[in-house]
Amino acid sequence: MSGFLAGAWAVARKDLMLEARSRERFVSMATFAVLVAIVFSFALDASVRARSIAGAMIWVTILFSGTLGLGRSFAAEREAEVLTGILVSPIPRGALFLGKFLANLAVVLAVEAVIFPVYGIFFGLDYGAGALGLVLTVVLGTIGFMALGTLFSAMAAHTRMGDSLLPVLLLPLLIPVVIFAASATQRLLIGRPLGEVQGSLRMLLAFDLVFLFVCTASFGAVVEE
Amino acid sequence: MDAQMDTGSLAGTRRWSVVLGVLSALALLPGLWMIFFYVPTEAEMGVVQRIFYVHLPSALVAYLAFGIVALCSLGYLWLRDERLDAIAVCAAELGIVFTTAVLTTGPLWGKIAWGAWWVWDARLSFTLLLWFIYVGYFILRGATENPERGKRFAAILGIVGAVDIPLIHMSVQWFRSQHPKPVVLKPEGPTAAPEMVQTLLVNMLAFMLLFFSLLLARYVVERLSRRIEAARMLRAA
Q: Residue ranges per domain, chain A?
């Protein structure tokens, strides 16, 4: 087990080091997210109170910018033949998946750390009271998103259509995460107590565990030659 | 020799498909007659309710088809048996066809009963997502450069979808539902008129037979076209 985790950590560290040096994924995702917020502000009618739909706007932004980043998740593996190297090393396939997942999770969480303040400023949201619940919701929602996303981005990397295929496969499967994450976020934003979203958080946790298990177990069949 | 034996069993499959097809026609004709002439018109919704005898059997057949996709996908990843992949593809195709029937008959009814083609109701959303997941199944298959890999990828989507479908179902149920509640398939027994139950059961049987007949026929075509493809590759090499 410790060998498994060490393998996963080694893969995650490699990805995060690459990302820390180039920052290309983070910068493009964060820029895109801010642009989506600007598009929302122009597209919305002035009479719509942004606060009452902010949960939906934030999760649409997270999904779009997250999918954008996932598209580059296996870029190094594909372009520089890194995957062959990883596959001949004594790292189990499940650990490879977990490593890629952790790296993706860290990048998207960093982007979300930009999204929330930007939306707060642009749409006058107050996170103060529900901050703890919001952090929990976002982390739990993102774990499920990245579990499925990492699996499908590995598949999309082997197709002719590449990145354009990813959202088509991913979005229908992500609906349960979206439903609970967006509704919990919305309730916390309008000042409802943490107790009211407990059910949603528990559902998100259950999805995360199921997705992580299924995706880790089936990843071997994705990278197999 | 192997191929010869296989051809023999495919011919057997083809015969079964014809037998089931004839049986399904024998059930469909009285089924249609019952829909138009036998069953009484429902008091509240009127004549449009008769669409239900096509709508519900299509939905059940679609669920059955996707269940077969999931089981065969799991089996394919385990055993790597070409035949399981072929069944999964054929079942997925038919699943999409019958889901399309559900998504067509539903709005036709809804426009008259609810006054709207579409509402974001639990079951409607669920069925629409089902359709998209399995359309993705074919896009993924077709877009993968290596066909063997395409089969594996599709099988994974079939399995992840099978895990996700109950989750979507559960999560959308949390919303209010406008969709009519079951009147036939419920634990304490049907509350609909006996003629309605009979009409439904005959049509359900007809649709099941039709599904299996089409599945077997499509399977034979799939296997033969794969054999042609393999022979073509061999000649090219």
A: 2-224
